[in-house]
Automatic annotation (TrEMBL), chain A:
Protein name: Large ribosomal subunit protein uL22m
InterPro entries recorded: Ribosomal_uL22, Ribosomal_uL22_bac/org-type, Ribosomal_uL22_sf
Organism per entry: Cinclus mexicanus (American dipper)
Gene3D superfamilies: Ribosomal protein L22/L17
Molecular function as annotated in GO: structural constituent of ribosome
Top-level taxon in the UniProt lineage: Eukaryota
Pfam families: Ribosomal_L22
Primary site of residence: mitochondrion
Alphabetized PANTHER family for the sequence: CHLOROPLAST 50S RIBOSOMAL PROTEIN L22-RELATED, LARGE RIBOSOMAL SUBUNIT PROTEIN UL22M
One GO-annotated biological process of the protein: translation
Signal peptide: none
An example Gene Ontology CC term for this record: mitochondrial large ribosomal subunit
Family statement drawn from the similarity comment of this UniProt entry: Belongs to the universal ribosomal protein uL22 family.
Localization: Mitochondrion
Automatic annotation (TrEMBL), chain B:
Domain of life: Eukaryota
Protein name (Swiss-Prot/TrEMBL): Large ribosomal subunit protein bL32m
Organism: Cinclus mexicanus
InterPro entries: Mitoribosomal_protein_bL32, Ribosomal_bL32, Ribosomal_zn-bd
Keyword Transit peptide: yes
Keywords from the UniProt entry: Mitochondrion, Ribonucleoprotein, Ribosomal protein, Transit peptide
UniProt function note: Component of the mitochondrial large ribosomal subunit (mt-LSU). The mitochondrial ribosome (mitoribosome) is a large ribonucleoprotein complex responsible for the synthesis of proteins inside mitochondria.
Gene, per the UniProt record: Mrpl32_1
Any one biological process term the GO annotation gives: translation
Family to which the UniProt record says this protein belongs: Belongs to the bacterial ribosomal protein bL32 family.
């Protein structure tokens, strides 16, 4: 990128990297650098952020796949996506494989199976309005929707699923709320 | 070409247009109690859809008895906009979420994932490729359609000789090593 300053053209020192219009917030999250850990601290698990923009799919339909994957280990997620019939499943599988490779190469992850999916989200991409022609000269405007997909992989085994809330827990919370009531603006 | 400009009640206009179309074609004779269609414009009724524009489409004059037409206009329509909370409850109901599949195993041959009741995709692709090559050889030997022989076929790879069992059979030579999964009897 940086040419030797003894070259002919004086303007060659300007870096000519392709400037994307906006580097999204999710991509920037990979750039944070923590200060080195003290010897006594527990090891901070590696976090890898990856996303794909402007996928030609609906964000609502993609959300179901993102919800399916949410707390799983990466192997289980890949297995589920491989046998899912949805169009977005193929895209998300590619994203996960890319992220796994990034993790091993750049983010100092030792075992590629030791990752789990901490967050997986969908976002709305740019929509385009088009005409949809009906019979008898009628028309409607349809929108061609696109979506983004964001995933955060964290090193380590997946966390155990939360036990569902029982009635007893809810009753205990209710009683606790009643007990927390106090009189306001009084002696 | 009829290009409709958006009027204040587009659905009502389209509905009225459809009704009028049906009336014109005589598909709805029962409405007017046996009067001969088509009939000329009558009194304009105090319906809820009085739009003063008279554009190139047919005039929307109505029947003598207003209650008949108004009864057609009572179609089911939502009264209130469904809030996003209600929409979310419906869309995220557990019955609508994708279920996780518990019938995924590992193929003992190649080690890829496979569903229990389905053939392994990788192994199937391998076999498909090999059969494609065999079929190409068969095509070269036969040289055209409708030349299939009446005897059985045997596929032999490099370095294999036909045995006594393959006496009267047609022999297809494949110029490569025998794949490990293609067992020779």
């Amino acid at each position: 990128r940086w040419l030797a300053s003894g070259s002919l053209f004086p303007l060659s020192c300007i870096h000519t990297s392709t400037s994307l219009q906006k580097i999204g917030k999710w991509e920037k999250k990979n750039r944070i650098v923590y200060p080195p850990q003290l010897p006594g601290e527990p090891r901070r698990p590696a976090e890898i952020y990856h996303c794909r923009r402007e996928i030609k799919y609906s964000k609502d339909k993609m959300w179901y796949l993102a919800k399916l994957i949410k707390g799983m280990s990466i192997d289980q997620a890949l297995a589920q996506l491989e046998f899912s019939d949805k169009k977005g499943a193929k895209v998300i599988k590619e994203v996960l494989l890319e992220a796994q490779e990034m993790a091993v190469r750049k983010h100092n992850v030792e075992f590629k199976s030791n990752l789990h999916i901490a967050e997986s989200q969908t976002g709305r991409g740019r929509y385009v309005k088009r005409m949809r022609y009906h019979g008898k000269g009628m028309f409607g405007m349809m929108k061609i929707s696109r979506c983004h997909y964001f995933v955060k992989l964290v090193e380590g085994p997946p966390p155990p699923p939360e036990p569902p809330k029982t009635g007893f827990d809810q009753a205990k919370e209710y009683v606790q709320q009643l007990r927390n009531r106090t009189l306001v603006h009084t002696l | 070409v009829l290009v409709l400009i958006r009027s204040p009640m587009p659905r009502l206009r389209s509905l009225l247009q459809r009704c009028w179309g049906r009336l014109e074609r005589g598909l709805w004779p029962g409405v007017f109690g046996g009067q001969s269609p088509p009939w000329g414009p009558a009194l304009a009724v105090q319906g809820p859809a009085l739009v003063p524009q008279g554009i190139s489409d047919a005039g929307e004059s109505s029947a003598e008895v207003p209650s008949l037409l108004e009864s057609i206009l009572w179609m089911a329509a939502p009264k209130q906009r469904r809030t996003i909370e209600v929409n979310r409850c419906r869309r995220r109901n557990p019955s609508k979420l994708i279920e996780i599949k518990r019938n995924i195993d590992v193929c003992p041959e190649c080690g890829n994932l496979k569903q229990k009741h389905v053939l392994c995709g990788y192994c199937y692709a391998k076999v498909k490729e090999e059969t494609r090559l065999i079929r190409m050889e068969i095509h070269k030997k036969e040289g055209g359609p409708f030349n299939a022989p009446t005897v059985e076929t045997v596929v032999l790879y490099e370095g294999e000789k036909p045995t006594e069992k393959d006496e009267g059979k047609r022999i297809i030579e494949r110029a490569s090593k025998r794949p490990s999964w293609f067992v020779q009897d």
